[in-house]
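Request: Give me one sample?
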Amino acid sequence: MKLDRETSKLANQSMAFILAGGKGSRLQELTDKRSKPAMYFGGKSRIIDFALSNAVNSGIRRIGIATQYKAHSLIRHLQRGWSFLREERNEFLDILPASQRMNDEAWYQGTSDAIYQNIDILESYGPKYIVILAGDHIYKQDYALMVRQHVETGADVTVGSIEVPLEEAKAFGVMKVDKDDRILDFIEKPENPPAMPNDPERALASMGIYVFEAKFLYDILREEACNPDTHHDFGKDIIPKLVKGGKAIAHPFSRSCIRSGLETKPYWRDVGTVDAFWEANIDLTDFIPELDIYDNDWPIWTHQELTPPAKFIHDEEGRRGQAVSSMVSGGCIISGSSLNRCLLFTGVKAHSFSKMSGVVALPYAEINRKAQLKDVIVDRDVKIPAGLVVGEDPELDAKRFRRTEKGICLITQSMIDRLDL
């Protein structure tokens, strides 16, 4: 997507700051070893790759990333996959782990504190605008268009907004806006979210994306740090304060979302639960998925592992390597196994006579002979025993594995090790 000169200039004057310290506890055992932004998605990517790719594709190539919870795999991914940004071209990716830089507290105390503790670093880079991003959502968006709106409206803060079902809104900051998109009220994670005036089934929610003029942001964060009653949080403290005493403007996601010719509506997902993670991955196997990750005009950059092509072997009745409506990544070997509506990450091996339906298998998982899996997430490096059946007996599945209310089973190696087979 080609931006006009003025919008490109604004992107060059901006810096993205990604908050990537989230634990993601609703993903259960999937985040025992990694943070939510480091979770795998779509066959070869990590969740954080979407925010990073959006920034780079938007022309914002100065990026800071605040890490905290179990950050090793995330930092390793960033070092391996995002080292192409070059300082001599005024572009960089700066990893900012929580550390004892400001006081005796080792951790970031909240979203605004993560930026406050790094103000000296941000000031040294001299950006005119700061785009604050969450590192744990799946979507494609041109942030430069949001920065342009921020400048044109003279806002103190611009907040990315999206319409969500009312029952889901309690997990977000919910806004009330006027006809000019000025935010009149902002409630962080309300127990009873207010509906939109023109749609009683939906609420207007914050995407956790904020644009500030840099100096204004530094001033308000320094002021907030002196407040003994603060939560150190944008949603709980900074945004409500600016709604009441400043100029806070909403930016509808529909104005800057990126869609290829195949995408009929704006796509944004919080894959923060086991069910949501499974659904968003499996949805990619649809004939025309709601999210087009094949769009070369807006590529999703990531670490490219050196792997051989996927291989399908054996061709006899009952032992045929085949996949229908599935995505199979590099390094996978489908050896006499049958796949239907599955997504396999790098290096998965499926052995003879095994059958899989609705399976999301993370890297280097191994499914041994005659195993039968239905509606399952298999964690990285898990070895599924020969003959294991999952997805036919809900009560047995719930005793052995993590089974959701929607019937999705999460399988980790520690769960396999506890089985009495």
